[in-house]
Fold these 3 entries.
Entry 1:
Amino acid sequence: MSLAKPLSKPFSQIGHLLAGCSVRHFRSLTLMLVSSLLLVGCSWVGPLMNGSLEAPEVVSEKIKVRKMDFNYIYFDADIELYNPNPVDLKLDGFNYTIDVEGKKLIRGDNNGLNITPEGNAKVHLPFKVRIDNLVKLLPDMFSKDELEYKFSTELTLHGPLGMKWTKPVTMTKTVATPKLPEIKMPSIRLDKIDLKGFRIKVELPITNPNVFGVNINHLHGALVINGLKPFEIGTDKITQLPGKGETRVEIPVTFSWDKASRSLLSIVESGGLPDIQLEGSWELNPDLPGFDIQKTDFGFNNGKMI
């Protein structure tokens, strides 16, 4: 008994049709069938043949500061592309440059990507700027409140049969210039004296050169007066430093009676201008979006920050 199954009705009809065709008719029928399949399966052939493929679009371009501190500024540049065509497009690898105040700062590159038919593709380009490199490039940067950063590139996209498009992209971002607060010449005055000892107040004039406010969360240091043994000063009270202003921070220090403290008391009572050295660290929290809390060291000697 034969195990072969009879053909279904449609295939049986096609078989009868082909059986009744001459070789020439068979070739013509085959060509028509293949052409129909090509036209149905490759809907892009029509637009391609009449040159009506559309240029890809840059639908968005933006640059933002992701975070910053007194050492780096971290940027994100994002470009979104749209392919309106029924075929894949390829974005070539490309180079880009970052300028600051019209001077070249950074050069980078990207490997490119494919954009699906009638689809979107996003290019994400993170980069960071070193503050000390900015200072080398712009020696007068700290005299400026803001700097303008410019991102520039040219995108090249390819389609079928050698079709090509170029898209220039330029983005700018103005960013506040981060500057460390400065301690001016500290002053010392006698606040209280009794049988147990005495208390002085160390006053630190602190200038915030930024256009934005900065909070001091903690401040601790060692103060040396006229070469005497260092004594510790500090405060954990949050102190606000308004932008473009000076704030005087008072730190009380209590001493019990001993030889060293008596020597210090005589210096304070004399009202003279002692030699002051100060070293320590502080935690700074700028009122600026994306700015991380910073713990940095500071020093003061010979009447100026070191």
Entry 2:
Amino acid sequence: MATNNSNNEVLNNKCWENIGSWSSQSPSCEQLKKTRHCRHCDVFAEAAKCKVYSRHSEDNIFQQARDIIEQQTTLSNEGIFSAIPFRMGPKWFLLPTHAVISIAVNIPAHSIPNLKNYYIKGLVPVNGEVYLCFSLSRLMGITRDYIETPDLKKGIFERLMVVNAGSIRIAIRVDEIREAFRYHESDINKECNNIKYSWAPYLIGSIFFEKPKTTIACLFDIFELEQIVKNQMP
């Protein structure tokens, strides 16, 4: 963990406001040639960590983590879970909230030399980390001919979703994301006709949710997703 002096140095620097993406003048930081935006820079990521540690003591952080784990355990024991809805093309899907690490702006993937894989699009930097960009839409056979007009106010625009698929972390490009919602295990329809036969191995079932109108979304089996990605790893 960084010392208080180094924390203050990072926080007082604020290069992202002076010469970076949030500068009032034309950005002049050399790192932007590599990262494209301050969000993907190690300095900005370190500043965020310092901000957290400067506000809370280590004991408080651990206590907050314990409280969150206890709350999630209580909800799970009651059969209540949480999921994040996201759209690929015209279809809506769900992932367990605990499996979603972060959500970032959509950026082009960097191709991997000598790798020819239909499902792996390359590597993407997110918050100072590099992730494998996996095309879940191709795996599901979802065509991209369905186009919904982007609307920033309504949250309709492409983003990258970093997912913890068991022992593997991947980035998935999605067309839209909605806020997490809670559901009871009895809400899962495991025999819904809406699920394509070819999708069955990857999904647990389907759930109705509001977006704001009632929509059917398919819930991914995170353990099956892990095996799928492992099978495609170079």
Entry 3:
Amino acid sequence: MKKTLVLIGSIMVTILLVVSAGCTTPTTGSNSSAGTPATAAGGNVSGTTAFPTNLPAATPFVTASGIGESGIQQVATKGDKVSVYYTGTFENGTIFESNMNDTTPVEFTLGNSSVIQGFEEAVMGMSLNQQKTVNIPAEKAYGAYNTSLIRTVIRNGPIANTTFVEGQSYYIHDRTTNATSIVKILNVTPITVTWDENNPLAGQNFTFTIKLVKISRP
């Protein structure tokens, strides 16, 4: 991993070369760093908008009893710490991430924005041991693709002699805001470098199959 500092206006950023040029794993926001549905939001998060009505709703189904130890059916609500197994796919059916075969489920707290909005909303209201499949639009995942996040930077100072590769991705860390995001190099000249600050998964709609296996309350 190669590290260098870049001065853009009054903003000093750190660039870390990503070992793999492809980033296929999904956090929230339009140009945050990539992670999983249970990854805390990072980077320059612009937020999300309302759930569109043009995506078909999936029908949830119960796979086991949702009755807790107290004899009362447990339902996930805001503030609960939940444990889930999930599989995420693109619109073409390709699986981009799954922990269904892992021994340990993913844990997060509902309401603290530690997962993408659509994923959290899908888990909210689920019963213990329920499994369901939901469609999550880009607006509730990693945001719509934003052309204004394509930037051309003058190659002076620390990056004057840095070797950039078109199509490769880099992490940039803004020391002013302490935000980290991934950029993809689009064009390189002796004078400038043009990169794309959109999240690698911006503009993508997803389908998630989610199984809720544990609910813990403070």
